[in-house]
Amino acid sequence: MVNRRIVNYFEGLTVICVEGKKIERFLSYLYKLKIEILDVQYIDRHKVIIKVYHCDSDKVLNMKTTYDIKIIGYEGKVKLWLGLKKHVLLLVSIIIGYIFLLYLSNVIFEVEVIHSNAKIRNLIIDELNEKNISKWKFKKSYEGIEKIKKEILNKYKDRLEWIEIENVGTKYIVKVVERKIKEKEENYLYQDIVSTKSAIIMKVEAVEGEIVRRKNDYVKKGDVLISGRIMKGNEVSKIVKASGKIYGEVWYNIKVEHPLFYQSKVLTGEKKRVYQIQFLNFNIPLFDFSPYKEKVVENTNVISNPLIPFKIVKQLQKEAIVEDEIYTDGEALIKAEEQAVKKMEDSLDEEEYIISRRKLKYYIENQKLYLEMFFKVYESIGEAREIMEITE
Q: In this structure, which topology does domain 110-178 adopt according to CATH?
């Protein structure tokens, strides 16, 4: 039975409906013509449904008879083939669409270099462009990416510590870690301690050398504070390696801005799970009949393929409301001043501090308050400078 079904499938069957008087006579006539009837289903005395091999169907249809004969279906390979012919346009579209998606999934649409230093970002982008990793170029293989990473690191071994090129859909995300070269500590055989900036000296702690500038003296950048030349009268008696700490009052102008209008999202506590189709830059929610106006979402991939920019994700959506924060001029001024102070404090070392501060000016433009502040800061101002000319 199983073998017969397999044969029937590959041969292909035609299902024919026959109507008329004395159906048995019609069936007998088919047997005489050696047309094999594979199945007979009697509907009533004058109607029957038969199955014959597809190769015999034309013989049945072309019989000269008073019976009403019509094809009502097909089985096996004939049904498959006719179905393919009927939906050929759809099949061609699917094939072309798949090829197109395959093409798109192997093309780079965006390259993003993540680093705070614009020079490093531009350097990496230029290197990647030279190696054909740029917009509208084809993606590289894993081995190709590893080779490119190694070449860039070898080329810039003094500037780059680590590089990672991650393929996310049709985008390359490049993460870079800059090599931090420890600044060479100046340690000369003979040296002066000089001022790094203009300031009023507030404290001098000399370990070695001769103090040449005292507390409350005004100094400019480069002025000698502790000299390595030890004087005796008007002559240099000896030259040493000057060392010590000098603190001075230094001045800064800092500019900041703060918005008068600010929006923030606050969660309401309502949440739901929604399935969503993501294709390229399009997001299509499924059966989400009451979408949240504002929301915070967390995505979990259900179906995804790194080769095709198509995925189905499950979203945990948390409803949110947008709250507007509106500042008066006075409130914005207070916030801006706090921001300026923090900016100043973040630039100071442990022993350094703000002596005083003063608002210089502020103005409002394009819904923002702009503030300029003046700071007096207690700060270390000494650094070593080599004594180049030594007189015996």
A: Ubiquitin-like (UB roll) (3.10.20)
